[in-house]
Amino acid sequence: MIDTGFCEDCICRSCLLWWSQRCPYGGCWDEHRAKVDPWPGPVRRQWTDWDQPGEQAHWCRGGALYPVDSCPDFIRYEPDKAVVQDCLEGVVVKYQDGYIQCSMIDVYGCEECYRRLEERLEQE
Description:
Elements: H1 16-19, H2 29-36, E1 83-86, E2 91-94, E3 100-101, H3 103-107, H4 110-123
Antiparallel strand pairs: 1-2, 2-3
């Protein structure tokens, strides 16, 4: 997500897909919206990079937040339902929708974790 200094109130920060790094828009709804539906209003000069290419296309700039609740894939994140737990070869996070975030799965896959566990158990 682009940090404009005013992103604390962004809808992305309370979205399950943002927290679990599965956002179909790459982590920032406004980045996507700037490409498909650029800001139609007047030039805004309230932030440092206001004159850089593409900056005026964004809706959330200069502390001005415009319909940030319009992301079609938004799912309210419930932090009390996210569970951090040990798994075979590492620590995983299980989210409210059942998705399990695991760096080992991303790199090796579950099968490799099981293979390593079996190998370790055989050596013991």
